Amino acid sequence: MMTKEEYIESLRKLDLKVYLMGKRIENPVDHPMIRPSLNSVAMSYELAQKDEYKDLMTATSNLTGKTVNRFCHLHQSPEDLVKKVKMQRLMGQKTAACFQRCVGMDAFNAIFSTTYEMDQALGTEYHKRFRDYMVFVQENDLVVDGAMTDPKGDRGLSPSQQPDPDMYMHVVEVREDGIVVRGAKAHQTGAVNSHEHLIMPTVAMKEADADYAISFAVPSDAPGVMMIYGRQSCDTRKMEEGADIDLGNNTFGGHEALVVFDNVFVPKERVFMCREYQFAGMMVERFAGYHRQSYGGCKVGVGDVLIGAAALAADYNGVPKASHIKDKIIEMMHLNETLYACGIACSAEGTKTASGNYIIDLLLANVCKQNVTRLPYEIARLAEDIAGGLMVTMPSEQDYRDPYLGPIVRKYLQGARGKDTENRMRVLRLIENITLGTAAVGYRTESMHGAGSPQAQRIMISRQGDLEGKKALAAAIAHIDPSKDKNA
Keywords assigned by UniProt (predicted)? Predict the structure, then answer.
């Protein structure tokens, strides 16, 4: 496994094509807007080297028998699934931001089982290719951008009906030695901090959409791949000289990018689906299930930090003993642990797939994510309530540091007796960062739209909720005779 330092140096060796605000970024590793997100990923390497975290952060590979980072692991039991959620909570607690390796881990497990069943049904050889790819990823301890979401264009049209075929990733040429693909993947979490892009289809498909049913992997700096870095709320604060307090979280962050594939060649051994449209839906459903489980860990870890920040804000405001403040903090903890309970539940109920790795209970995973579309918003609302309006009207750090204005700011921003004004400002900025600033991308909006927008989970809950079975239970207890209905 790599150390934190080795990971950072490995990114320096890549020839990434990254664009930000209209300019090519020659050194993404040290760019002030990008570096906090890299630090979050690096924490996954740092914690894996610490003895106290190795049980959560590492696992034994079923492919090589070696110790690997859990983010590169294929789940081998319900216990593995539970440890995944606990690891994600830990990472959220340590970074208060998106740490970006979950999408790759969830893609590994979805593609592993889907390729096995595809081979069994169609006589293809994708599973062996993917096993070999997983050994490569584990041996090199890579960060992999699991990429599913296409731009989609006109949402009312299928991939093959789009006026512009590039609205969904598709095959443009099949060669004896590989394929050529074109399109883009949107909202790609951690793309710039990744060694590889691992592509999956984004929707279930019919035969007319076969060219869009593709899965493959390419290096992040492969010819024809470019990344356009996404904007975040308050992101240019990172560019201000000496910025610290105003950042809220000056060390960690997350990012997303639009990843464009312009006639990219993919070698045959790195192709894991090519026009097998019958299995596109399975891959999508399994990845979505794993990723919906993930939110029962990562959002909870960030929630732990936000709850702590709200409690600190109450201390600095001088109201920690007020009954309504206590009640709001209790409610925040209740909501946060509810999310965690869902993540643990769908993991504990996990089952073995035909390929040997384990998958979560899909119904409970969808319930988990449906709660995530709501409860973090309420936790954020309560945190903002406790923090007070100063969180969004506070003078800048430059004013606080200014020789003339500083004493005035310190005088009028003081809170509870014996509490430092700068500390009060810092915790308010942290709450702003998580609820409204750069971290809000991962904590609020991603909670809504990540791993599928809310309606996607409701559709899956409807399919998997066994309503007919529930009706039968009620009918049996009520002694209902169905034959009477037929004759009525």
Answer: FAD, Flavoprotein, Isomerase, Lyase, Oxidoreductase
Checking phi first, is residue 263 left (phi over 0); if not, alpha (psi -120 to 50) or beta? left
What is 284-469's CATH superfamily? Butyryl-CoA Dehydrogenase, subunit A, domain 3 (1.20.140.10)
Residue 187 among the catalytic residues = no
pTM for the whole thing? 0.97
DSSP-assigned beta bridge partners for residue 68: 59
DSSP, collapsed to helix, strand or coil, labels residue 230 as coil
d(CA 54, CA 73): 13
pLDDT digits (tens, 9 = 90+) for 343-352: 999 999 999 9
- Do 450 and 352 form a contact (C-beta atoms < 8 A)? no
CA separation (Å) from 98 to 127, 221, 238, 252, 313?
Answer: 30, 23, 17, 8, 23
Residue 393 annotated in ligand binding: no
One of 72, 102, 346, 368 is an active-site residue; which one? 102
SS (H, E, C) 418-452: CCCHHHHHHHHHHHHHHHCCCCHHHHHHHHHHCCC
Whose CA is closest to 367, among 461, 463, 252, 240?
461
Q: Which of 290, 295, 358, 443 is catalytic?
A: 295
The residue extents of the domains of the chain are 284-469
In the residue annotation, 98 being an active-site residue is answered as: yes
Query: What 3-state class would DSSP assign to 60?
Result: strand
Residues in the chain: 488
Three-state secondary structure call for residue 170: strand
- CB proximity list for 305: less than 8 A, separation 6 or greater: 92, 93, 96, 430, 434
Q: Provide the mean pLDDT of the chain.
A: 97
CA atoms of 5 and 117, how far apart (whole Å): 39
pLDDT tens by residue, 198-239: 999 999 999 999 999 999 999 999 999 999 999 999 999 999
Q: Is 295 a catalytic residue?
A: yes
Active-site residue, from 291, 353, 368, 397: 291
Residue-wise DSSP of 312-334: HHHHHHT-TT-HHHHHHHHHHHH
**Catalytic, out of 72, 98, 342, 346:** 98
